[in-house]
Design brief:
Layout (H helix, E strand, L loop, with lengths): L35 H15 L9 H29 L2 H25 L3 H16 L8 H4 L9 H7 L7 E4 L3 E4 L4 H8 L9 H18 L1 H8 L4 H17 L20 H5 L6
Antiparallel strand pairs: 1-2
């Protein structure tokens, strides 16, 4: 009797637990935080389309109204006047005008260098102001830079940050622009430290004030156009301003982690800011 044919049943390979794949050498895996810029763009686009109030900006409704007011004021008055100024004034003359008004505002920097405990910088900036005022014909020229005395930018808002005062909410002021609660006292300090404040002749101060405003507007024309081309000009200006302020407070060395901190109570430890006090 013949045996039935055998049926061949293939053997199944043993089931093994999945093995986590590892990248080959020379292949760099993109970390999750590398997608942060894309995520930020998505969030900003959502805020622009839905009007959602951004965390860390409690005064956003008021700020947006002031931003729109300042923007209309600029389009109607400052922009055409500054364009005419640029058109009829040579570049070298515009640079001298800028140097002149920067020199008038420089006593505020000198004062705050001393208030922050940066005494060497304070004396250097005082020497810079003296050189530009005397040798530079009232500040129309900048010989101090050629003398090895670099320009610094300090104000009372930075001084308060150095000594641990919190930033407070972000503000947009009419006729002035972006600011923070911590920086508001600098409006008075900058005015009182400007030599023009003590000139009582309005026939001098009013034209010079108007010239300063027009010169400053002409100097930031490119930045204003960049803001207006942004997806949300208000958010673009706010973030650019706040990052610039952090840059100034930390003398060009801001802690990276603060760029992800949108809260008003961001830490501003004095030792970190003062660590560069003895370095120009």
């Amino acid at each position: 009797m013949r045996e039935p044919p055998r049926v061949h049943v293939p053997r199944m390979p043993p089931i093994r637990p999945p093995v986590r794949s590892t990248p080959h050498r020379g292949v760099r895996c993109r970390p999750a935080w590398a997608l942060a810029p894309l995520l930020l763009l998505v969030l900003l686009s959502g805020c622009a389309s839905t009007g959602y109030r951004t965390v860390g900006d409690p005064l956003e409704p008021f700020n947006r109204k002031m931003f729109a007011f300042n923007d209309h004021l600029d389009r109607w008055i400052l922009q055409p006047v500054s364009r005419a100024y640029v058109k009829v004034t040579p570049e070298r003359a515009r640079a001298s005008v800028t140097d002149f008004f920067d020199n008038l505002e420089y006593p505020n920097t000198i004062l705050n260098q001393f208030l922050q405990g940066r005494f060497r910088r304070g004396f250097e900036d005082a020497a810079r102001f003296l050189a530009d005022t005397v040798v530079g014909v009232g500040g129309l020229f900048d010989p101090a830079t050629r003398f090895g005395l670099p320009h610094h930018d300090e104000d009372l808002g930075q001084t308060l940050a150095v000594w641990g005062v919190g930033r407070g909410p972000y503000l947009v002021l009419p006729f002035i622009g972006p600011d923070t609660l911590r920086n508001l006292p600098n409006l008075a300090a900058g005015t009182l430290s400007n030599p023009l404040f003590y000139v009582s002749n309005t026939a001098i101060t009013i034209p010079l004030g108007a010239a300063s405003l027009i010169s400053e507007r002409a100097n930031v024309a490119t930045q204003i156009e960049m803001i207006r081309q942004a997806l949300d000009p208000y958010i673009f200006m706010r973030e650019a301003y706040l990052q610039h302020r952090r840059f100034l407070i930390y003398n060009g060395h801001p802690p990276v982690k603060l760029y992800n901190d949108f809260g008003p109570g961001e830490p501003m430890p004095a030792p970190v800011s003062r660590s560069h006090a003895q370095h120009p």
